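Here is the promised in-class demo. Please do not try to memorize the tokens; focus on the logic of going from shape to residues.
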């Protein structure tokens, strides 16, 4: 079992079994900080529980020092690094950040091979490569990811990459490159599939409530309702 082999002792967090309601249902406040990093201005998100100040970093793709400074300034204890998918601009600094913060890395198993090729991807895009991220645990649809008081529902949304995921917490969804405001992730890179991406968006993302705020891997946030009514690319993917 590859995941077991990759698991590093002492870094795995124990899932919080207390209660099953989401932070928003319980009236908790969740803090979200966006930090666009690197050549592709990839959005790294710091998500933390306001009360406990425990949180996660989603897609620490570049500019390690800036991300660490953000974490310090916000006074957040980062308990996990979550990767929405295996593209280099989302994963390239995960290992450095992991070592600095002593926080384990989680991703979907279908993108594990892609994550291992981060240096080759970096070379392809003319980027300077960081160390290959060592993934510690799996994000899996049907298994909520819990850290402190935060709960993330995991949706597997292949199409941009085979192991792309969306992380839903209350009325917020971190969607990686599955969808953008008025656009969708490219499907011409290895492992991409346009029809599959359209299906992922229709059958998973668009089933979330219209008011759900979507935080994409690039560009500004949007909502499910907004994209449902105006995103031209989702329809075009099926053509
Ligand atoms: Zn991508
Ligand atoms: Zn990206």
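The designed amino acids, position by position:
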């Amino acid at each position: 079992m590859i995941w077991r082999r990759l698991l590093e002792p002492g870094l795995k967090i124990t899932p919080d079994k207390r209660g099953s309601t989401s932070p928003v249902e319980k009236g908790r406040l969740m803090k979200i900080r966006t930090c666009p990093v690197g050549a592709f201005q990839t959005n790294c998100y710091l998500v933390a529980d306001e009360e406990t100040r425990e949180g996660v970093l989603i897609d620490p793709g570049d500019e390690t020092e800036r991300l660490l400074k953000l974490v310090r300034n916000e006074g957040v204890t980062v308990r996990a690094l979550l990767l929405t998918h295996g593209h280099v601009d989302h994963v390239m600094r995960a290992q450095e950040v992991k070592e600095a913060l002593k926080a384990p890395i989680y991703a979907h198993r279908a993108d594990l091979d892609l994550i291992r090729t981060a240096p080759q991807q970096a070379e392809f895009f003319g980027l300077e490569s960081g160390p290959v991220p060592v993934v510690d645990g799996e994000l899996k649809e049907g298994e909520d990811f819990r850290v402190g008081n935060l709960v993330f529902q995991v949706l597997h949304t292949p199409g941009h990459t085979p192991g792309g995921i969306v992380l839903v917490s209350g009325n917020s969804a971190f969607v990686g490159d599955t969808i953008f405001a008025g656009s969708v992730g490219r499907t011409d890179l290895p492992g991409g599939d346009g029809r599959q991406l359209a299906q992922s968006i229709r059958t998973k993302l668009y089933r979330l409530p219209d008011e759900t705020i979507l935080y994409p891997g690039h560009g500004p946030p949007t909502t499910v309702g907004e994209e449902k009514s105006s995103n031209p690319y989702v329809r075009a993917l099926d053509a």
